[in-house]
Amino acid sequence: MPSQRRPLVAGNWKMNFDHLEATYFVQKLVWLLRDAHFDFKRCEVALFPSFTSLRSVQVLVEADKLKITYGAQSVSVTTQGAFTGDVSADMIAHLGCSYVIVGHSERRKYHPEDDANIVDQVRAVLAAGMQPILCVGESFEERRQGIELDFAVGQVRDVTRDLNDEQAAKLIVAYEPVWAIGTGMVATPQSAQDAAKAIRDDLGATFGQGVADAVRILYGGSVTSKNAAEMIAEPDVDGFLIGGAALDAEELCTIARLALKTSARK
Ligand code: PEP
Asked: Ligand 1 within 6 A of 243 CB?
């Protein structure tokens, strides 16, 4: 049976583009997709700008009723108060965000975001009515030891342990092997499929088949238009979380078109 999950092509801009550049990018991307008669009903395209650009993206999307969605790259675990520099989930939700990326390896590395903090971020995002995109994936060392599947499954389990079925069904998982992020070294389609399937099977064992079938599982790590089609042809890969290639509107448009076309054949 073909998958009921709508593919998601998500562009993580990281700390790139000020609000003027973000505005220009959104207009260019939407124009390119429209020119290609892109069917947003069959493939979702989401952007993850910096906090400083979210308002500009919201204004564009709402004014022109654009079909793209957007979200933030991280969130505070607290709701308000004396937390200088933090941004709460409600503040993000009030800007029309659908998603928040949680647990990206760069956040785990450069900020004090440990497993407990990531669990709290997921809870904060869900409580504010948005969906978390939970990033998991092994380092080169775990892959060398051959424990990459257990590692990624364990990271998802740590976060979902206290969630109910309804909350778990709202999760999006991005399998992003750390060694593949920004390196040009991409996982093979088979290893992305193996990880996505292991994560989906484990969600099924914990929450039941309905939840396992609902959760979208993305691959991230040096995705480009050269490798996107064969990656998304895999049955359990439902889209991408893209860094470098998402800074080029033409490239992102091409990847989205490949994702739509290839997943329609699954
Ligand atoms: C990412 O940052 O999530 C990512 C996958 O980056 P890149 O596509 O550049 O590897």
From this structure: yes
The reply, when asked if residue 11 is annotated as ligand binding, is no
CATH code (residue 154) = 3.20.20.70
Would you say the C-alpha torsion 202, 207, 241, 159 has a positive or negative sign?
Answer: negative
The number of distinct structural domains making up the chain is 1
- Residue 2 in any domain: the answer is no
Report if pTM > 0.90: yes
pLDDT (tens digit per residue) in 167-214: 999 999 999 999 999 999 999 999 999 999 999 999 999 999 999 999
Of 142, 148, 176, 251, the catalytic one is 176
Residue 104 CA: distances (Å) to CA of 14, 47, 101, 136? 10, 15, 7, 7
- Check whether 243 is labelled as a binding-site residue: yes
pLDDT tens sequence across 99-156: 999 999 999 999 989 999 999 999 999 999 999 999 999 999 999 999 999 999 999 9
Q: How far apart are CA 71 and CA 116, in angstroms?
A: 22
